[in-house]
């Protein structure tokens, strides 16, 4: 392939590697590989996060573009999209309250990392070696 765009990203962990260096080597010389998950570990073995100042590098004769936080390159558009996505959630928080909204919405609850001084993100608690607390079981 002449252009490969990898977008695979785990929500709660580093991105799994789905394309090996050997597989990248099978691409035609001069091909372009874009790894949008590079700042989360990368989903391609040959990926390394880059910056807008130095966005590309070559491995196995394949040009790699792995700029961190790519949406920041189009900040106004990204901000508008983020605002549109967050507004319904903010309205829910205002109408029902913080804790009740989280208890009623698993989608939102999975984004909670700390609550009342406790680590409420299981993977983070495991990584830090601290106690995990389910916010639903807190006193509130």
Please, could you describe this protein's structure?
- The chain has 2 domains: 3-68, Rossmann fold (3-Layer(aba) Sandwich); 73-132, no CATH class.
- Helix content is 31%, strand content 14%.
- The protein has helices at residues 21-24, 75-96, 98-104, 106-109, 122-128; strands at 3-6, 32-35, 56-59, 62-65, 114-115, 118-119.
- It has a 4-stranded mixed sheet with strand order 1-2-4-3, with no helix packed on it. The chain has a two-stranded antiparallel sheet with strand order 5-6.
List strands and helices in order, with pairings:
Elements: E1 3-6, H1 21-24, E2 32-35, E3 56-59, E4 62-65, H2 75-96, H3 98-104, H4 106-109, E5 114-115, E6 118-119, H5 122-128
Parallel strand pairs: 1-2, 2-4
Antiparallel strand pairs: 3-4, 5-6
Helix pairs in contact: 2-3
């Amino acid at each position: 392939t002449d252009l490969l765009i990898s977008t695979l990203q785990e929500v709660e962990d580093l991105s799994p590697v789905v394309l090996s260096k050997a597989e990248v080597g099978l691409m035609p010389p001069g091909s372009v590989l874009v790894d949008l998950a590079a700042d989360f570990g990368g989903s391609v073995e040959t990926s390394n996060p880059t910056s807008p100042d130095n966005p590309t590098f070559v491995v196995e004769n394949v040009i790699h573009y792995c700029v961190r936080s790519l949406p920041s390159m189009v900040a106004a558009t990204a901000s508008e999209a983020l605002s549109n996505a967050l507004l319904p959630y903010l309205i829910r928080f205002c109408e029902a309250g913080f804790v009740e909204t989280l208890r009623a919405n698993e989608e939102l609850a999975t984004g909670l990392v700390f609550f009342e001084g406790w680590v409420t993100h299981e993977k983070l608690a495991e990584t830090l070696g601290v106690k995990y607390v389910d916010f639903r079981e807190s006193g509130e």
